[in-house]
């Protein structure tokens, strides 16, 4: 009886293998190799706030991307079910290898928080990307009709200075400290200032030690931030990212200055000011 079962089992296994091979030849494996999700990679999205009104944003075209769009909200109120989209636009037009979007009527001010969802189209499927935030800083505001200067024309005293300029050129470091002092004076006028920052990232779950390692790895991969990695004390889950604490306010302001071109690290104080859940009480004091 056992021998008969064994023979039957081997026959079934052979038939199953033949069936799988037949399906594979019929396109089963091609389904796994589908190109439908290609063409949705997005480069960094650049923003310009136009003065007195208007908003411009653009991104470089990645391979196979056919269309680019955005749904953007100014100072969104979390918990509100319906909120009008302030800028909802899309384009398939490519100019100098970039997708450009512009709204002439919207009014954006320094200190506003922009929450936006990027939408990409590869000609076959449309994908909505994870929401991201941007705090509008003065350097984003441009007089209407003027684009941002190309990176090659930036002087050491501007916010786009390189890590080598910041740490090796005295004039660049002085300019950085001047901007930090200006921020401190503004913060003091606004009220309380914490040592918390927010890193936007797709992964926000896991133990606190793992989250802290994610932040540390982010710093270690960027020359400008690497010297400040030792300032990171703790990290916890946040909505769409990681909230982390640094050693002191000066380090916090240095990080904001050096990282603001990438829009990944934001001031957590400003995010919580408009209604995001404040989890700072869950941090252990050190």
Automatic annotation (TrEMBL):
PROSITE patterns for this protein: CBM39
Keywords: Signal
Occurrences of domain CBM39 (ranges): 40-141
GO molecular function, one term: carbohydrate binding
Lineage: Eukaryota, Metazoa, Ecdysozoa, Arthropoda, Hexapoda
The protein's name in its UniProt record: CBM39 domain-containing protein
Cleavable signal peptide: 1-26
Keyword Signal in record: yes
Any Pfam family: CBM39
């Amino acid at each position: 009886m056992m021998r008969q079962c064994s023979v039957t089992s081997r026959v079934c296994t052979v038939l199953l293998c033949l069936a799988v091979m037949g399906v594979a030849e019929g396109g089963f494996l091609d389904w796994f190799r589908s190109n439908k999700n290609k063409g949705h990679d997005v480069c960094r999205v650049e923003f310009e706030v136009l003065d007195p009104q208007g908003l411009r944003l653009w991104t470089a075209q990645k391979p196979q991307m056919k269309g680019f769009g955005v749904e953007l909200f100014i100072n969104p109120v979390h918990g509100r079910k319906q909120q009008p989209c302030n800028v909802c636009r899309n384009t398939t037009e490519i100019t100098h290898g970039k997708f450009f979007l512009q709204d002439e009527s919207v009014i954006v001010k320094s200190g506003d928080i922009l929450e936006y969802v990027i939408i990409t189209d590869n000609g076959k499927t449309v994908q909505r990307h994870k929401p991201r935030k941007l705090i509008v800083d003065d350097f984003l505001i441009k007089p209407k009709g003027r684009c941002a200067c190309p990176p090659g024309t930036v002087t050491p005293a501007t916010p786009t200075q390189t890590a080598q300029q910041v740490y090796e050129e005295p004039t660049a470091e002085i300019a950085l400290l001047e901007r930090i002092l200006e921020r401190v004076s503004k913060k003091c006028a606004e009220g309380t200032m914490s040592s918390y920052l927010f890193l936007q990232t797709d992964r926000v779950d896991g133990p606190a030690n793992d989250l802290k390692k994610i932040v540390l790895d982010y710093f270690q991969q960027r020359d400008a931030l690497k010297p400040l990695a030792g300032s990171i004390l703790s990290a916890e889950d946040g909505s769409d990212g990681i909230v982390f604490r640094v050693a002191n306010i000066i380090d916090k302001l240095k990080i904001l200055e050096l990282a603001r071109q990438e829009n990944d690290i934001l001031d957590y104080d400003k995010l919580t000011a408009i209604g995001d859940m404040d989890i700072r009480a869950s941090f252990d004091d050190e």
